[in-house]
């Protein structure tokens, strides 16, 4: 869809603003495919009056998020673009935009409207005049250097204090310098001095995440430098103090939405790649392994660039899979023998190389990896295949490798679909862990029975109190785990840190090892600990370790720990969602019984002792140590 949005799309959106409107889940995929900035802005304007639930399909709820915007300039033009971008990212955002130039007041005043809004995330919007003195002296650049650096420190301190006071996650950005300021200096040496001062101030901002976990910084200066958009429309700025051009507003909305997607655990985990005309030029079945385009010259070097970038994603925790209509033999030869190939067979956790429909193959890949389709990105050059997958599997995000192959790598990475807030050790080791899971499945088939297989695993589970180093992983589990998640509560890192340090709460993580390998922190239990009753506020576990009885071993440990502290019962909250059926089954099979009419609160007496740990699991973990 390009140009202005179709009358049909706008009419369907307007219908959703009426009382009693019926859901129209087909609109969200159409909105995601909008390519024009004007289209996105018009749609964003209408979305303000549309309940997001009317856009979500059955079983595909949007993730709620309270987003505050505060800045040093007028940002009204950003609002509709941001609304569209957040919805496209799968987020049902409640947005508060404060007034012009209120950043210092909003962040510094504990009673500000922004603080009262209780945002989950705050987008702090900055422009160059917020750092510059009002009437700076072009002959005293040393003073300018000191001023802009001090102002950057002041803004960073305001953001960190607000985060500590409210628990909000803060997103700042580097500040591009208007060319008007640069051209105001006539000496080349002076311009270089201004550049040094400006970059030192931006470095102050970029250093903030190293000092405060809840403050993050988007490098907007770099992004603007690589986009064919002007930083500022001077007429808009002089007339309405709108410091960014519409193009920069659109760019920022896209990047901020990608950050919010990462923050809420909606990042994609799997990149399913086509082969012909995607990882190499030509068709291997027709051209043969030696005839495909792959090498140092164009267009072969463009396909190599896609492979290099895919390998970089793999090294950062993205799982690579092949989804190609081909005969396996020539494909195997390319991966094994072609000297120019960057990616090899062991870079992939799974391959579907056959003549089956690609939507069927993607379903099978998701099943084999025990991941949802909403974890997958499909990258293919074929318009037919892309449209087939969009229609058949709306949860899969489709990126088409069309046009000049030189642009394929940028098109893949420009989506931001794989963005995460930070990398953990689990991310870096993900490919190896999923390969080990494939070996387990092979072992299961060879063992001929579930019990025999489980006993052959030599399974060990270690439960341990979380320390500060485990906080990012616990945060990741809470936000990215959907199937085994008892309450779907998405705590911030600050809340997890507070719980770890509290005398009235306990946060446990558990590691799993067997003869195929080991995995640290595959799950977590968040507990409130009263003298007679321990409450499981949330219990989350990675889908990678399903079907081994691990959750029952962890529950046994929790029960022993609670009993040793004098507790008489365990209480577990359970909030059903469209996807946490495995957690519901666990609550039922563990022996918890509902104690309230809605069935949200469940109780398990500790006397007699509840269900023991499975016999095939060696359970490690102290139960008598005081916190």
Strand content: 15-25%
- What characteristic shape results from the CA principal axes? globular
End-to-end distance: 58 Å
Low-confidence stretches: none
How would you sum up this structure, described in words?
The protein is an alpha/beta fold. The protein is 42% helix and 18% strand. The chain is globular. The mean pLDDT is 92.
Layout: helices, strands, pairs:
Layout: H1 7-15, H2 27-32, H3 37-47, E1 63-71, H4 78-88, E2 91-97, H5 103-108, H6 113-117, E3 121-125, H7 141-166, E4 169-173, H8 179-183, H9 188-206, H10 208-211, E5 215-218, H11 220-225, H12 234-240, H13 246-263, E6 270-273, H14 284-287, H15 300-315, E7 319-325, H16 328-337, E8 348-354, H17 358-369, E9 376-380, H18 383-392, E10 397-400, H19 408-413, H20 425-428, H21 430-447, H22 450-456, E11 459-465, H23 471-480, H24 493-501, E12 505-514, E13 517-529, E14 533-541, H25 550-564, E15 569-573, H26 581-589, E16 593-594, E17 601-605, E18 617-620
Parallel strand pairs: 1-2, 1-3, 3-4, 4-5, 6-7, 6-9, 7-8, 9-10, 11-18, 14-15
Antiparallel strand pairs: 11-12, 12-13, 13-14, 15-17, 16-17
Helix pairs in contact: 3-4, 4-13, 7-9, 21-22, 23-24
